[in-house]
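Appendix B. Chain record.
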Amino acid sequence: MTILKDKYVWILLIISLSVRIYLSFFTYVIQNDSVAFMQNAKFFADGDFLSGLGHNYHPLYSFLMAVMYKVIPDMEISGTIVSVSFGTLTVIVFYLIGKSVFDRRISFVSSVILALHPYAVRFSVDIISESTYFFFFISALGLGFFAIAKRKYYLFALTGICAALTYLARPEGIGIIFIVAGWCILKDLTRFKIVWKEKL
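Structure tokens predicted for this chain:
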């Protein structure tokens, strides 16, 4: 069954997107970090990449805001759209990973909880990098698990790409590399002498 034919994906998409869009109309507070992200996004939008990359905040979220700003010339709305989009996609990715690891019912219930969780929803409408970070973090974690389980090199490559994007969203994203490397070492630990080259 393809993703588009899975009715649970559409249900989760409607639930998570509806809640986030609704809350975005009633979130009036702009945090200090939001101002910094908007300032950095302005650097990217103006083509000043050196200033954007030299900013104290990691650049991915601000860069995505700048891209959206080219379509919708309002920095606040652009930042909100990026956060809402990645917050919604996080729920979908969480469901797809859970469905493969456990089963559809457990994954769906867990994803509904994530879709409605107050902190997850709030992070998804604020002009901050949390929802972007969580999306790539969960994606890298899931891809890392499947890469180790299926021993596919392209999955390891995708894990590395997602880990890099996670780090570009928030500095603690570098931890994904250590988590996946730890899984690699622990898997088949009793056969470590035989498969050490493969693990490396």
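Further analysis of this model is presented in Appendix C.
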